[in-house]
Amino acid sequence: MILERLRDLHARLAGELVPAYHKKQRVPWILALDEDGRFLNIERAETGKEDYVEIVAPTLKRTSGTRALLFVDKPSYVLGRPDADTEKARAQADERHTAYRRLAEACALSVHHPATDAFLRFLDEEIEAARAHPATAEMKPGDLIAPRVGETFLTDLPEVQAWWQNHEDERAAEDSTLTARCMLCGEEKPIVQVHPVDVRVGPDAAPLVSANKDAFESYGLSRSEIAPMCQRCARMYGEALAYLLKSPKHHLSLGGLHWIFWTREATDFDVMKLFTDPDEEQVRGLLRAPQSGTLPGTVRANDFYALAVTSNKRMVVRSWLTMTVDEVQHHLARYFEHQRILNHRGLSPPLKLENLAASLVPIKKGRPDWDKLPPQVVPLLLEHALTGRPLPLSLLHRAVQRARTDGEHAMTRPRAALIKLVLLSQPDLSEERMVHEALTPDQPSAAYQCGRLLAVLDDIQRNAISPKATLVDRFYGSASATPASVFGVLLRKAQAHLGKLRKEKPGLHHHFEQMLGEIMSHLDGFPRTLSLEEQGLFAIGFYQQKHRPRKTDGDEPAEATAEAAGD
After folding, report:
1. Which of 44, 53, 204, 470 lies in the 20 to 30 Å Cα band around 183?
2. pLDDT in tens, 334-346
């Protein structure tokens, strides 16, 4: 299934891919001919400050033997110029030029293009003039020469590129020792032993199909013969896979895992941007879709594919998802809706996937310590975003544990958003465990109200004194797990701080008294212990109280929201 979808993608990407058996080459010399094949000049190529021009040209793995490249090659092949002034070098140059000429003639006779016909006339009638040109004395043995007829480089011609692809496919088929039914096209063809495209996951070569130990081989089949494929199909899937892994629009690498995304038909739906740099307008379009009945960029019945791989000398498939584009968009809309949580400005900009994952690891030298991220986190988040599958409570456990460890920075917006995302993804969601993007004073959960209470008590302490260790530093862990064991003590200590505020900042004192009264009205005592999900609700209540949007009508003193600036 995966290989078939990659082969299908190859046909759609044909115009964007570097043709098979070609690569960008640095060419320092241009052999200039007119449209009739008459020799004009050998020019030194220049591109800005560089003394070469980049040309997409045929390539192959050349050994010590004589094997010519089509049109763009070294001086000993194109002109028959010896690499040294010895009899052996002259004989080698003659052999190489003969092979080069034979290859050029075969191509020209097949494609019947005026430019290739003109080049044959040059080889027949004008090559001595090129050999006598002074520029040949400056050429190094490894330099490349590119023939140009008029304004056309021969290797830019689609007919020439197609001919070289077929030529190399046929040569590979001749080297095959097995004929069988290709698992992709279903035709009886020669089977390749080694798939031709160098596919890399990060810096490592990582073939998707290979066998290098006896345990992987059966029925006398070796190497890539265990998954029989003809040269053309192996080349097509390989080129498509290599393209996706190199394309920033299709490839996401995070936490050692590489995800690639593509669709069956072209679409303007950009899932990579939603994960790596979500645009507020794009997200709003997804969120408005249920009301409007339309999804932005939707192509009816278009299929969406997501493949996750890692590398361990060969490619390891970690996940494979297939669904329709509109299904993915519906799930993404819920993903962004469920993670929405307001900051102190009353805004909820969409979060990058990286930010959500980073909320689960410690900070090391100012950056997330990705080595501490469990390998399953990114696949779980991505699969939830794309398919709507519930997130496991193990993510919630890790988030609340990090909050207990991080003290003053217990609850950042990404961490609160992730906790909210996990809670709302559960299938048996009760009203008590329903959380919204904004502070909800009448939320029925005691755990949520306890989180709010800790945030208010921390604000009271901060406004009354300048503590070296805040309440959050000292008590967040115990308050979020066993509220009954600490809140009685914290409320008694708060009375001294309130007394100081009553004398020095009476408006602030009145505000906090009102806040405490309102929160306590929702509590019928403090729970002895909180379950994992209740600890998540505690965290949400704490964050939303701490970072509630500031009021501008004068009802709330500015000091009361001074701590809300840290998202």
Report:
1. 204
2. 999 999 999 888 8
